[in-house]
Write the structure tokens for this entry.
Amino acid sequence: MVPDLSKIPDSPGVYLMKDSSGVIIYVGKAKSLIKRVRSYFQSSANQTPKTRVLVRQIDDIEFIVTDTEIDALVLEANLIKKYKPRYNVRLKDDKRYPYVKVTTNERFPRIFLTRRRRMDNALYFGPYTNSRAIRSTLEVISKLFLLRRCRKPVVPGKSRPCLNYHIKRCIAPCKASIDEEEYNRRVMKAVRFLKGDTAGLLKELEERMQSLAEDQEYEAAAEVRDQIEGLRCLTEQQIATSGIEDRDVIAAVADGSTVYLQIFYIRHGSMVGKADFRLEDSGNAEIPAALAAFIKQYYQDSPIPPEILVQEEVLEKELISGWLGQRSGREIKLQVPYRTEKKKIMEMCLRNAEMAMRISRLEKGLSEASLIALNELKDVLSLEKLPQHIEGFDISNISGTNAVGSMVVFKDGLPARDGYRQHNIRTVKGIDDFAMMAEVVQRRYSRLIKEDSPMPDLILIDGGPGQVGAAKSSLDSLGLDIPLIGLAKRFEHIITPNKGSDEVIILPKTSPALKLLMRVRDEAHRFAVTSHRRRRSATLTHSQLDAIPGIGPGKKKLLIEHFGSVENMRSATPEQLMEVKGVSKKIAERIQEHLGGGSSVDADSG
């Protein structure tokens, strides 16, 4: 089975091939991602046996867009080092960065360094690029919390403690010197410290020390005091050993109320991976606010690097920076890059966020043509977001009779017929298209307000300044500020309300945005005319047939289908009326009498 390749762009970058379990099995680079990836799924005649085996294993393909092929080459090397894919050629001297492992998947958890991260439900922190610093950290943690690091099975009260107990590096749960609940409290304190919550942990320890001192438990208070001093010492060491070579790069793009975010992970000066996120229901999705919301959520339980790069200044920057500093126990730089090197990586991150948004649109069924038209429409009308939800209105009547207002819905540039609505005009008598338009718009959006339903991104009126002004007055009376335009039929000019001399926008006939508006306007007109004809026919039929006793909906339908119109029934003979199933001699006489038609049925007939 060939994976979906429609999302892959014609750009330089790196592709990551995964098997059915989601494991990365191959990482490659390309000047054109789509051309290179497609080549794997063409004729296998010229492929090596290894490549043919690889292709059979591919279940999914991810990619990262880069500026140049050189950037792709560097990134490819970093990702091969990180993931060690099965089908890549790898250097034997490749090293793994260490993790801190806390075996929360077993009783009396251990804490130690490891260079392999397994799917075993344990907690892992890292990877750490400075092995010396993290080893020093573990030494201090051992002194502070006395957690075990050996592999010896724990059988409380039945085992002899090892050397770590005698040199005061372990509290020896094997000796039954501590119960499991108290031991686990120590474990969670160590976990909080590794997550960066040094400030919260210090405060908790200080309160405990004070409480113990007040209870005159001076020996226990002195032990907690030593833990506090050790934590403060370790925090100072972390600040001294942390360079600016570790950083996260965050870029975001908005699409309506959804924000797509991309994070690049830079470790030891090299990019080692990326992650995609999205924020839903973000209102107007302003980037500074979205970045602030994301940072506050993401870094609740994620490692905090000493530097975080963002594309724009975030809201509440000082407050968030202070919070990050408290969590990590060191100063965190939260800044917009201006230097060439950092700015370049930010631009690459931003392009990948835009690509993620583009893929999401395609997955939602938004065609390339619709995307082009909607983007142009957004720019032409200076809209805050892409007009993916458009509602179009038109009025149809003959000399003011049987007036109908239609409302059609377009989503992602295509008709959404389940959202179409017909409004029979109630309050307007005679010919007054402006008042009719005002009534229909008022009824539509007052209902949406009452139902607390989402409003459209754009309203299109079939008509000129008069109809547009009437619709605008209805929106104003409801306190709504929805983008509103009209499209005049004669010259296909876009009418905007309250724009003075700039009231008309003229687009070329080849404009995708204009063509989309014309489709919405024409569909609203078609639906209005169809609704008007249906209502006029129903009114006519009702006024002539529904008043006749004995004729229900079924017989009425059969009569209309048989004769075609009430006029033909009026000129029909009784015998012809009785040809319709269910029409008796008595009913035929009633029809004749009511419609004032031909001669009645003789008493002796049939």
